[in-house]
Write the structure tokens for this entry.
Amino acid sequence: MEERDKIIADLGNEYKYGFTTDIETETIPRGLNEDVVRLISQKKGEPEWLTAYRLKAYNHWLTMTMPTWAHLDIPEIDYQDIIYYAAPRTKPKLNSMDEVDPELRRTFDKLGIPLEEQMALSGVAVDAVMDSVSVKTTFKEVLAEKGIIFCSISEAVRDYPELVRKYLGSVVPYADNFFTALNAAVFSDGSFCYIPKGVRCPMELSTYFRINAAGTGQFERTLIVADEGSYVSYLEGCTAPQRDENQLHAAVVEIVVLKDAEVKYSTVQNWYPGDKEGKGGIYNFVTKRGICKGDNARLSWTQVETGSAITWKYPSCILAGDNSVAEFYSVAMTNNFQQADTGTKMIHIGRNTRSRIVSKGISAGRSQNSYRGLVRVAKGAENARNYSQCDSLLIGDKCGAHTFPYMDVQNPSAVVEHEATTSKISEEQLFYCNQRGLSTEDAVGLIVNGYAKEVLSKLPMEFAVEAQKLLAISLEGSVG
Amino acid sequence: MPAKQNLLDNYLSNIDIIGEGLPVWFNARRSDAAASLNLHGLPTAKQEQYLHSNIERLVEGEWEQYFVTRRHPDPTPLLPEADAYRVELRNGRAANEALKVSAEGAIYGSLCTAACSAEYGAIVERWLDSAADMSDATTALTRMFVQDGAFIYLPAGVEMQSPIVIDSAYHTDGESEMCFAQALVVAEESARGEVIVTHRSEGAGRIVVGFTREAIVGKAADIKITELYDLQQNCSIVNNNYITQTGKSHCATMCCKTGDGYVRAAYNTALTEPEAVSDVWALYLCSGEEHCDINMAARHLAPDCRSYSLVKGVASGTAMGSFAGMVYVAQDAQRTDAQQQSRNLLLSDTARIFTQPQLEIYADDVKCTHGATVGQLDDEAIYYMRQRGLSEQQARRLQIEGFAYDVVQHCGCPNMCRYISELTAKKLEKM
């Protein structure tokens, strides 16, 4: 099959978003010790309790080892060879868009999402996180009118210490796992969002993450608190410049959803996946967890994962409040030598809680794609209901698709279901499309987008468009 | 002293008695197994495969091990009315040492005798331990101490009319005893037959049993295996089953846990040549404080194979049932068709079900599905039956029996099927 060979040959299309921005960055020496933790804390002018928290986390981290249970082949990481802090040296003043570093603005332009256009057209407030320090926060005033706090976490620590202190580490304690301990010790920045009682956030909140300076691991910390009866839709999207050196990303996202509140968290992740030989690429070891703390709380995770060399990520929900609802929609696409071990955890504690998991894995090239999920129904979780569906699509015969669902049920009134299928794009489907004048490549794109539609449709509009584009780009050429 | 060290010390100080009268190769593999156990250690609950079985705790403490033949009182006869060939194991040792030949030409009897015999020694040497995975600690533990067991050999073309029963009974009066046995079933090309394995226990003392069964299914052979765990509460078994299937062979396994004792059973099927077909049905019923842990793996190593498994569990009281399944599809195992189903009923607030159906797939032209459900009895169905005059109790019973029957019906031997149904009904009384 000539066409197939040709297509497979240009499978490793170059990373479109691979470029470096020349903004001067201030870094500290490589390596990690107590002094580095103190230095980070000091540079950010943090209160004493936070410094103490970081040190506690650091000391706990020393006692831990990197987890090895995931279906991933992780090269050894030298944690002493990482720069744990990088801040843009010239901190821009934040009065208007014009004052933002032109280099940075060009960066956003290259990404195809001009900041001002985004602000004007879609009404999205962007908290652009470039490297570790928040550079520009927009629409703050509009949000402030409603009493919504949306700022970088360092600002939050300064301006709303009580809120941060109350919720930081309450969902993901530093001792949770190796990477959360590391993150808690060295987190440099991230976003903080607080929606007051009964407020419906009028726009979608969005943070654009970028990893910029070479060799600096990015340790983001995101904390979202939705107070009683509030609603927010939060978007997180990521792209990164092309690098040879592997970069480590160990972020923590915490979400607290109080009584009657609803949070939608959407992610499009497109970090540098490494070249077609599997060289370089970002290691993405993320801990995301939300808690439906009050009754009738709702939390929904939607993710489209196409980037990163290695992904280790399990956005989870703790359904503590009665009648709370959690959803997890995921498309994980791996190509070339990418590896992904991703899934979710649904912990049912309250009564009448419901959760739904829809996971679509797509593996191509020589990649390995695993779904790993846990559904736990605790003793008191009367009438808990879970439905999980995990589908895998294989493109090519050198890749792997794996499913590791765990179910632990301790309440007899619970109904838990899990379904999974694994299949490939059939010759018939391709033939049908070819007959109707579609190239094999377009046909695959069409079929895959159809396959992922159930998840993509859960994304906010502008994100859905980007996600579809991303899928097509990541898929180019990989025909089975 | 840690349990592992205890066991190894016991092995080393009795090494001469354990291996007495057995071929050199048999004992050489025994020391390999000991080395493997020493290397890997006893599994803890931290190991993925033993997440819900604490083997270390199971074997710790003081245990008697007898390395010489002892007399045990005869257990209740098993299915006396059934027309079957029998291999009787008493605490792991064959009650009758002679090898027998069935009317159809199958050879059955003591594993130790077969290993030592001039005629079948080579067959045992070739196939014994060929399928078992010695890096698995409990398999290695059994291999380290095993002195006897059952041997069944179906020469090429043999078609069995009656089943061969391995009746493994365990008995101890007062003391805590540990015993081990191994069974080897070899079916040559185009052989057909049915093997029934029963595990029963009697007596007041505690027993821990380590059992390993290997089945080698030759080209186009068709084997049916029925395994029953009818153990008393004071008896625990760790049973590792390994099945190797070659081209166009078929192996159907049905296992059923109706007793009160702890069962940890692993069924590993390797489909090594094209067009092999494997079916596995399992049922476990756990009441009281029981614990049952079923592991099931289907390894597709060749193209065009099919595997199907259905595992049904019912837990009541404070019982805990766990199931871990794995379908592995190797890179060149194209056109694999694998299905794995786990269905569970939870009958009480304090019971717990843990299920984990996993897929590991490296080939692209495959059809693999798995499903798992955990639920309770259907209220509407109970209401329907009550409307028609059944009591609540009867309606519930009927529904559970129907749930269990999906598995029980796959037993080939009608006598055995009836026997299992009776035991199932008796067990359901307690739930």
